[in-house]
Structure formats: C-alpha cells, structure tokens
Amino acid sequence: MMKICLILVLLFPLIANGLQTCEQCISSGNHYCADTKLCNSPVCLNTITVALNCPHAPNATYDDHEARTKWLPLFGAGATNEKMAQKCFDNNWPTMKLSKRILVNCSDPSPILPTTQCAMITAVDTTQRILVLSFRATVGGTQMGEEILNYFVGKKQFFDVGMIFEFFYDAYVALWNGGLSTEIRNLKYKYPDYEVWVTGHSLGAALASVGASWIVKTGLFNPNNVKVFTAGQPRTGDYNYALWHQNTFAYSFRVVHHHDIVPHVPFQYEVVDHDKMYHHRTEVWYNNDMSEGSPYQICPEADGLYCVNQQLDLSWNDHTHYFNTDLNVYGDQGCPKKN
Ligand SMILES: *[C@@H]1O[C@H](CO)[C@@H](O)[C@H](O)[C@H]1NC(C)=O
Ligand SMILES: *[C@@H]1O[C@H](CO)[C@@H](O)[C@H](O)[C@H]1NC(C)=O
C-alpha cells in the first residue's frame, strides 16, 4: 500500500503535466508533443512550441468540389477586366453578378521601382445570398519582385491585432480609399444579412486575408458570416495577427499547391529583423498536380514543421497553377467551364 502510494505521488506531476491540453502546456512554459499528445514528452518527433500551432481540426468543412466550381472562378473573376469577370460568372456561377471593379496604383513611393496596380472585384448573388470580394494576384514578375523588396521595408500595426506587411497594408488601403469603402457600405446596406466570401490568389490571397480582417475589425460584418479562401498566400502578418485571424474566422482555408514557393515567403525566421511571421490556419495541402479527384491534407497546425513547411524544393510553376488551371490566363479567358 505504502509503495503504491509513493509511486503515485512520484508519478503524479508527470501524469498531470502530460495530460494538459496543448494550449495549457505551452502557456505553462513547456513544449507539447504532437506525436505522443503529451506535455514535455521525453521523446518527440514533432515538438510544438507556440500555441498558434496547437493541433486542431478546422471548425468548418473543406469542400474540394466547391473549391473547383465556386472559389476557382472567383479567383479568375478577380484577376481580369469587367467583361471577362462577368463571363467567369456566366460560365460557372450564373446567378453571380459583377457589382464593381476597382483598380488603383498600389506601389509604395520607391523611386527605383515602376508604379504597380492593384485590382479587385465585388459581386452579388441574390439567389444564394452571397457577396464576393476577390483580389487580383500579382501581374508578371515586377510586382512580385516589388513585394519581396517591400518585405524588408517594414510592417504596420493592424488595428489592435498585430503587425502585417506594410506593402499589403498600403495596397489594401489604396483599394479601400479607391472605392472599396463606399462600395462595401452600399452592399452591406442593400444586403445586410448576406454571407461575404473573400478570396484571392498570391498577392490577392494576402489582400483577402487583410480585407476579411478589415471588414470585421471595422464592425461592418460579423466573422461568422465571412468565409476566407485563399490560394498560394504569402506570409501576411506576425504571430499575433495569425492567432487573431484563426481565433476569429471559423471558415478560413489557405490552399497550397504542391511545392508552390510563395507560401514560404517571406521566410518565417527573417535574417534582417528577426520578427517571426506566421501563417494562420487552416492550410489545405495538395501534394500533387491538383487535378480533379486529387487527394489533399487538412493540416492540423497553422505554420509548424508540417505539410508544406517540410518541403525544400520550391517551384514557381506550382504557384501559378491551382486546381490544374493556369491562373495567369484563366480569368482573361473568361474562366472556361471545366468538365
Ligand atoms: C498611377 O500611376 C501612374 C504612373 O506613375 C500615373 O501616371 C497615374 O496618374 C497614377 N494614377 C493615380 C490615380 O494616381
Ligand atoms: C472553433 O471551435 C472551437 C471548439 O469548439 C471553439 O473553441 C472556437 O472558438 C472555434 N473558433 C472559431 C473561430 O469559431
């Protein structure tokens, strides 16, 4: 009896410690083990050190069919002119109607770089009661080059939430002041209880993350009515921004194609200022060509050594192709319907 008691007393701290949730474990200054699901596991392959990465299933269901038939045409519509944007809807989602296209100068005032433009569209489906904000990707290599240069320029405070990259912040504000603010207030007035679908690819993905966060922080929309769906998103903000985003949006998917380079930039551990940048949940990783029927992984960590972060050989071609579609031309072709 005595012996058993002694053993229990000796073991108790270990057991109690081990049974903590990941969040409890990390907030008490320890490391959580994703493999053993124990706090301070002596042997561990995948150690989690930040609460952002505590493994969780997403609160919403990912739907590959909806991604191909709805979100993909929305990427296309956001990336082209008015006429072709409406064609993207007519071909794939006939009840969706273009509301407005906004095109602004979005470069920072750097004297050595050419002016670049940012674009987006809004659209309304009065049958399915959905509003859309779709942001355009980078056009050609120049803008991506400028983005990468701007990564080192700085970050800006995003409301009381955290820091985001200055380039994304300024580009979003240019669109907001260039017509989005008025447009979204009009849409909200006309369709107050519609869902808002916010989306984009590449630079457009970062702007979608910022835009969804913006319309929630300004009190225009309730996050429960907002869906965020991005493809090939670069890291957009810091730890606090990522944590706030994933604690706020029940529906937020970040799709990554195979070895797409862009979700890896800027690198998480910057040499220059050591500010760690993080992705928010939920990454959906297609480790294949994304053709119809391809498998995918719903990644349980936001930005850990998991899914795409385990990849070292990175590809630009994978960045421009999502759902087996060349996004450089898809929108301008009016988003031809897939079989
Ligand atoms: C956008 O930039 C171009 C080239 O620098 C300039 O000519 C044009 O006036 C700018 N447009 C606006 C709306 O500022
Ligand atoms: C997701 O679900 C968990 C568990 O039910 C809940 O605690 C959390 O608040 C939800 N997150 C969002 C953003 O709705």
Automatic annotation (TrEMBL):
Keywords annotated in UniProt: Signal
Signal peptide positions on this chain: 1-18
Gene3D superfamilies associated with the record: alpha/beta hydrolase
InterPro entries: AB_hydrolase_fold, Fungal_lipase-type
Domain of life where this protein originates: Eukaryota
SUPFAM superfamilies, A to Z: alpha/beta-Hydrolases
Record-given protein name: Fungal lipase-type domain-containing protein
Origin species: Caenorhabditis nigoni
